[in-house]
Structures are given as C-alpha cells and as structure tokens.
TrEMBL record:
Keyword annotations of the record: ATP-binding, Nucleotide-binding, Transport
Pfam families: ABC_tran
GO cellular component: membrane protein complex; plasma membrane
Domain ABC transporter: 6-244
Record region (Disordered): 220-244
Tagged with keyword Transit peptide: no
Record-annotated membrane-spanning stretches: none
Gene Ontology terms for molecular function: ATP binding; ATP hydrolysis activity; transmembrane transporter activity
InterPro entries for this protein: AAA+_ATPase, ABC_transporter-like_ATP-bd, ABC_transporter-like_CS, ABC_transpr_LolD-like, MacB-like_ATP-bd, P-loop_NTPase
The name this protein goes by in its record: Putative ABC transport system ATP-binding protein
Domain of life: Bacteria
Length: 244
C-alpha cells in the first residue's frame, strides 16, 4: 500500500456523447505526499474538475484506481464515499457555498453540527478557524455583509474546521479580483501548512503554481509529461520563500 495521501493510477473517466463516448480523463497517474500542496493546472475543459470529483468521491471512475489516505475510492459504494468525504475530505469551491441567512460563525459551525461534535469543542473550533483566516471580528456578520474575499475565507475556515486529511479546492479564486485572489492564495497556503493538511488546488491561474510544492498539468484529460516539484516556493507576488 502506498504512503502517499493521494495515489491516482491509470484513471480514465468516460461519458456518453451522442452515439459514442468521450474521455474526460485518460490514463491519468500521479501521487501527492502527505502535507503537500499540489496545483492542478490547465485550461477550461482540461478535466480538472472531473479529476477532483473522482478524487473526492463526488464522481465514479470508468477504470483505474484512486487511493486517498490508503482507501481506494473507486471501490466504495455511495454510503462509504459519503463517510470518506465526511471524515477525511473537505471542499472549497469558487462559488463559496455559504448559506446567506447564517452568520459566518454559523456557516463554519454547520458541518460540525451535522457531525454532532460536542458543543464546547464546536464553538472552540469555530472561533479558532475564523481567527486563523482573519475574520474573528466578523463572526456575527452574514455573507451579504462580507466582501467576496471574506466570504471565501469563511469557506476555507468551514472546510478546515472539520480537520480533514485532504483539502480539495476547485478554482478557489475564480470569482475574485487579482489582488484579493493573491491574498486568498497566500492565506490558503499558510493555513494548510499550519494545519499539516494535504491540499490539491485546481486553477488556470499561474499564481497557484507559486504556492505549490508540486504542479500537475492537465491537457485534454491527460497529465502532461513534466510534473514540477520545488524545494523553494514563491509568494503569489513573486517573492521567494523557503519551504517549511
């Protein structure tokens, strides 16, 4: 069994198309070690979201293996995939996905309530993660009272409050302006490293590559031959920093 947090082996995902089929992913293979940040880059339609959905158990594979923290996701039934997502995986999307009638604190608290976490620990986690993303003072504000960047920070706090083993972020800066997006990327990098979480972040924004330990390039559903790895990284503004 692999020691990688994510091990993808010969993954193919085929969908019906008219009278035939189309390969959204074709023979995709790569691995990501625990505690690393991987950037999944490629143009729209390259297969990034399909790949993330297969890793996160939101979609099934046509063939191949997807192993997350020692579990082959491709072999799980619906109930087991739901349990895997609940216990080990968290998602951040470009649409934020916050409930508009709930405060920032209530949005972060919601998945913890669904897991029936002890109320004292739940409130401690909510306060900790809102502070971690710099929004402790906005805990009682609703999404409509927050900027886009602040809403994405709440979404990050909500995702990490469950202390997942794996964070999957699909175009997390897609709805943000360049400066706000760079700020969110820096925050995401710092928080993920502080928590020791493994993260895979999809984007067509080259700034993501600056915060990643590893870059996986997709084109037409296939991984491109060169997979970059770094011992040093750059901040989103281009300044280098040492890997921790």
């Amino acid at each position: 069994m692999t020691d990688a947090m994510i091990q993808v082996e010969n993954l193919t995902r085929t969908y019906p198309s008219g009278t035939g089929t189309v390969d959204a992913l074709s023979d995709v293979s790569f691995s990501i070690q625990p505690g690393r940040i991987a950037a999944l880059v490629g143009r729209s339609g390259a297969g990034k979201t399909t790949l993330l959905n297969c890793i996160g158990g939101l979609d099934t594979t046509t063939s191949g293996r997807v192993i997350v923290d020692g579990t082959d996701v491709a072999t799980l039934d619906d109930r087991a995939r739901t349990a895997l997502r609940r216990d080990k995986i968290a998602f951040v999307f470009q649409t934020f996905g916050l409930l508009p009638l709930l405060t920032a604190a209530e949005n972060v608290s919601l998945p913890l309530r669904l897991r029936r976490l002890d109320p004292v620990e739940r409130e401690e986690r909510v306060a900790h993660y809102l502070d971690l993303v710099g929004l402790g003072a906005q805990a009682q504000q609703r999404p409509g009272e927050l900027s886009g960047g602040q809403q994405q920070r709440v979404a990050i706090a909500r995702a990490l409050a469950g202390r997942p083993r794996l964070l999957i972020a699909d175009e997390p800066t897609g709805q943000l302006d360049a400066d706000t997006g760079a700020s969110v990327l820096t925050l995401l990098r710092d928080v993920v490293r502080a928590e020791g979480t493994t993260a895979i972040i999809s984007t067509h924004d080259p700034k993501i590559e600056a915060v990643a330990d590893q870059v996986i390039r997709l084109a037409d559903g296939r991984v491109q031959p060169h997979e970059a790895r770094r011992g040093r990284h750059a901040n989103p503004d281009g300044e280098p920093h040492e890997e921790r």
